[in-house]
Amino acid sequence: MEDLFLPAINACIVVLGDIGRSPRMQYHACSLLEHNCTVEIIGYQETEPLEELCSQHSKCKIHCLTPVPYVNFTPTLKLIFKTIWQSLSLLRALFSINRPTFLLVQNPPGIPTLMICYLYCLIMRSKLIIDWHNYTYTILALSMKDGERNLLCRFARWLECYFGGKADAHFCVTKAMQMDLNNNWSISNVTVLYDRPTPRFQPIDLYKKHDIFMKLSKSYSQFRAETRDDLEKIGVKESTAFTQKLHNDIVQYKADRNAILISSTSWTPDEDFGILLKALEAYENNALQHSQDFPNLLCIITGKGPQKDEFVGKIERMKWVKVSFVMPWLDFEDYCTLLAAADLGVCLHWSSSGYDLPMKIVDMFGCGLPVCAYNFKCLDELVKPHQNGFVFENHQQLSEHLNFWFEKFPNNANINATKQVFIKHLQEFQGLRWRENWNTHALGIFNKYF
């Protein structure tokens, strides 16, 4: 691999979004740093980026864009104002950096990113590389009355297609997107670079699970032991709602513990949490009728975004007995650990284009966590039903999966065979991590152009 190392070059990564919530672009930055690049990142810094990018010893510099101010305009005027503001802000940031050998641009959002970055590269004689995560116009269509037929969406699609086709190289996240870019956008030089987990997403032992439960119990009552009876028992040193540590430091699961269902989200329109609520309502009703066969279920939903307050309001009106919720905001390390401590993951992402795959499933698989995922046309590139998870298309199907997985939890002999199949396939998935995958599929592309 040494002969593939990049020469000393300047790289600029453009994220017209929160850098801290753009893991794939951060992973690109880390990989480029490993290969002798000086990296500058342009984007918003609402959450803390990876430590490797913020270290004073790193050859990475982050340039923060000025957030778009609130204006009391009509939706269309707001969009125009936002586009102008971001264009000027991005141009100012681009002309403040050292001339880069190339710009690696996240799409979406493609407006105004692709046009501005193309013009900058034309002036500075830098190479333009686009990493296609999805399509801007399909996301925009979610908020438009006529969807993709809306004039603004059609104009956005034209801009995205025209300036996207001007790039020197392309990455995308699925084979389905590669085919679509080739067949419908006439963009042929596209390399599929699947998302893969970093080593931070790993299965953990029971001791680490107990530690994360103890840490979270200080802030969230759902993780605390219900009474002090546990600590009064002979030999018990520490206790949570799920585990206990004995005086000899052995950690045990509690026999009557709750089950943990976990989901992460950015609370955007391409995730329908109404499906989850209806499925959990069905689980609640079934569990009340068969109380001895189904555990209490703690549903953990991490993340923050525009639709969170609406969801919180809905669950606060529900008076459930067998299902409870907690919605923590976690730092990166705790998020990784909590995924590995859960019993089942849920992904409600349905993809506005049908061509992208959710990073959260990749993270869950990296931790050895099976997932229930909303089905769409390219999901089978990642989720294999009854091999590493389940798929569903409505709340009834999701409810059936929950009932199957959690019946007689945690000692249902009927699903042990299924669990062993999942473990086998998840271990195979964990055999290829981001670094090795990037070196195999991306490094050669950079060398080809530079």
TrEMBL record:
Pathway: Protein modification; protein glycosylation. It catalyses: an N,N'-diacetylchitobiosyl-diphospho-di-trans,poly-cis-dolichol + GDP-alpha-D-mannose = a beta-D-Man-(1->4)-beta-D-GlcNAc-(1->4)-alpha-D-GlcNAc-diphospho-di-trans,poly-cis-dolichol + GDP + H(+). The keyword Disulfide bond does not apply. It comes from the Eukaryota. Pfam families: Glycos_transf_1. It is found in: Endoplasmic reticulum membrane. GO terms for molecular function: chitobiosyldiphosphodolichol beta-mannosyltransferase activity. This is Beta-1,4-mannosyltransferase.
